[in-house]
Amino acid sequence: MPPRIYLPRAHSCRSAQLLPYTFPAQSTPLCLRLAIGRGITGSEKSLPVSETPGKGPNQEQLPHVSEEAAMIGNITGEGGPDIEQGTPIQEVLKRDKDALDKAPQVLRDEIKKPNPQGSRSFSTLARRQQEAIISFEDTGVETQGHKFELPALPLGNQSHIKHRYEPIIKQVTNLLMKDGKLSVAQRNMAMILNHLRTASPPLVDPRRPLIPGAPPPSHLPLNPVLYLTLAIDSVAPLLRIRVQKGAGGGGASLQIPIPLAVRQRRRQAVLWILDAASKRRSRGSGRGMFAQKVGEELVSVVEGKSGVWERRGAVHKLGVSARSNLKPPRASGKR
Length: 335
Fold this sequence. Notes:
Elements: H1 30-38, H2 65-76, H3 89-95, H4 97-102, H5 105-112, H6 125-128, H7 136-139, H8 167-176, H9 182-198, H10 224-235, E1 239-249, E2 252-259, H11 262-278, H12 289-303, H13 308-321
Helix pairs in contact: 8-9, 8-11, 9-10, 9-12, 10-12, 11-12
């Protein structure tokens, strides 16, 4: 059974009176306690007036920097401040009348001064230092503004950034490159040239002479590029053997010698040198080991101790024996 709720009757209810609430001393808000202590009331008195007339210590502003510098300049006799350097404030003040009225007296006097004809109303640092600039005509310098002489025109073939290396250096670098790693090939090329430069002068074998016009062997380490060119051109073959099937009749093939250009000759020589260098025994380990073996192979080529000479001699011997397979050109016209 639910509990019963007894509501008071109307005649038994008493009228509720609202009594003012007073805060205890311990629970009085901080804002009210501070307001009572500071004496903040509705009838607050104004600040007392000073007996001595004049501005207070915080009411008088200091003079402008330019005015202060002008006063010091007048006292010392050095003249006014340098207001011509930097932003052309004079031009701004001429356009703004309100700012001109509030501008320092020094700037207003400077604006009122007449400017000489052909001069600017303001000056820059370059104009102030114009007298200190030394002209090259007075000093007698031939190349004005250049430490070294300018290159002669027209420029050479190697002045282009893509053709700044020797042709043979670029060709050997491309043949050294593997998997498109050009930086590794360039590093190996630099190590090869360094090995040729630091190696002792070679002892040339008279049975395997170098190309005509070669410098003395003692001068080769002084020019590693010439050293490399001389070693490659000395063992470069003059021709190659092309096998032509069915040219001999009855399905027989013939060996026909084909002359080579300079770039083709050098390419074949470099491939022979790289193949011989890869078969050399390594003296250690490291990323510069292959470059060292190639450098040693180039030195042995100049000295006539490399096996590349035998390969060149075999190709030339085969070409001499196969020259009978060449057919003379047919004469034009009818007989």
